[in-house]
Amino acid sequence: MTHARMVEALFNYTRDTIAAMREAGVLPDMVQIGNEITNGMLWPDARLPANWDNFADFVKAGIAGVEAGRADLPRPRIMMHIDKGGDKAATKSFLDKLATYHVDYDVIGQSYYPWWHGSLYDLRENLNFMAAAYDKDIIVAEAAYNCAPAEYRNSPAPFPESPEGQKEFLEEVNRAVMATPNGRGIGVFYWEPGVAPRGGSLSGRGFFGPDGNALPVMTVFDKFTRGKPPVARQAQ
What we know:
The structure is a single chain. By secondary structure, the chain is of the alpha/beta class. It has a single domain (3-223), classed as Glycosidases (TIM Barrel, Alpha-Beta Barrel), CATH 3.20.20. The protein has six helices and seven strands. The chain is globular and about 50 Å long. The termini are far apart.
């Protein structure tokens, strides 16, 4: 298939998917165009860093598909999701290059797994940098930690790989995102809270223990849920 045909197919698929969601009454609030796209998409045609022109064509086709599929409803926010949570230099390189193609997006998404992406200090430094450099909202679109020894068997762990350490990790990531300058840190998505406790090598990253019961990490966001506004009382 030629590049032009691939661009058309990507546009049509995205448009039809968004239209189906709209017609079902479940138009999403946000759409990410690809997943962890630092290395491109639809290889080999848009593999990065060699094929930026083709990659930009695909990203723009996806965004145009969202526009077409939403019809007269508000456009879902568009996220660019990369996997450089603790790497300021790599983040700058990718987003600066993307900017030269005038891609119209709203939110920067970052994956952050500390054994791959650096320390919490690195994450905070990158959050601060992105908020100042790009003036866009930022989400940690993927984050996780293990409730049992897995990634840090042979090296020091930033938090114990235990149920309490898993909770502490997510609390600190959430705290870092909330502290992003100018209110630009707007959320954290955990990957993957519903993974089966006995589901293989990733099972220790979920919110449930081997007995199927919820782990302490389940409560991290409880304190941040929206409450009802206080009821005004009239003076007697």
